[in-house]
Design a protein that fits this description.
Largest sheet: 8 strands, antiparallel
CATH topology: Porin
Number of strands: 11
Number of domains: 1
Distance between the termini: 40 Å
Length: 173
């Protein structure tokens, strides 16, 4: 698992990524006699993305959970409380732009490295709270705070781009 942080609330993140992509490489210096210049390229393409992420944040006895800057505790002591939900990029075609370096190290062998990003747009997000109650002095219900946080994830521009890194070996025939 990994995690994602929203307004200071860190959620555990389980990922299920299913991506298929097709890229074309443009080599501006492909005709150069310098093998290092020949290795530079720009990649452009598209991917079919079907990615699902499970989000979870749990608290135990005596703990508090901050959601949207407000604190919550267990509504029923002794029972786990928290937030669970899903974030997804479903059945989307995403454009890709990347930059790479792929020098030949012999007649038939080469290596490559590439960095880029897919433009995915904002994800679909659903969050629900369970067994949470506001601490004294907090007038906002736990579900209202969770709904606001889901909306912030849905509309936060930092989730619009999916970074990509690739390394590998090439064989030329």
């Amino acid at each position: 698992t990994d995690d994602v942080s929203v307004n200071g609330t860190k959620y555990d993140l389980d990922m299920d990524n299913n991506n298929v992509y097709l890229n074309a490489e443009i080599r501006p210096w492909g005709a150069s006699t310098n093998p290092w210049a020949q290795g530079l390229y720009i990649a452009a393409g598209a991917a079919y993305l079907d990615n699902d992420y499970d989000l979870a944040k749990r608290i135990g006895n005596g703990d508090t959970l901050s959601i949207d800057g407000k604190n919550y505790q267990q509504a029923v002591p002794g029972q786990e409380g928290g937030v669970r939900g899903k974030m997804s990029y479903k059945n989307d075609i995403a454009p890709y732009l990347g930059f790479g370096f792929a020098p030949k190290i012999s007649k038939n062998w080469g290596v490559f490295g590439e960095v880029g990003a897919y433009y995915t747009g904002n994800p679909k997000v659903e969050l629900t709270q369970y067994n949470l109650a506001p601490v004294t002095g907090n007038p906002t219900s736990a579900q209202d705070a969770v709904d606001k946080e889901a909306n912030e994830i849905r509309n936060d521009n930092k989730y619009e781009w999916m970074p990509v890194g690739k390394v590998g070996v090439n064989f030329y025939w």
